[in-house]
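Something for you to look into today, if you have time. Just paste the record in under my message, thanks.
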Amino acid sequence: MNVFTAKKFVSFPNPAIDLCVFSQLVNGYGGIDITLVVVRLATEQMSAQVRNTIRFGDRLQEVRYLMKLERFVFPEAGSYEFTLYAGTEPVARTRLRLTRS
């Protein structure tokens, strides 16, 4: 996870945008519950939580995970953390800093 780390908007809440989160995952086996959690760091308030199940054929298989967040709105400027969990274990994390343009 991590293509860009900053974005500017004219106002907040921002106009709804389509946002994609991508991660390559390894070392899984069978069905794995995946949860993407988006948190505003200043308040530790959750902005989104999305769950899916992915399947690994074996532990050596790379699985490319793509989550589309349609019409996503950030309530305030600031830093947001995106964390991807496999079950209860965090497996990928990145931050996005939002500012006014």
Q: What stands out?
A: DSSP finds no helices and seven strands in the chain.
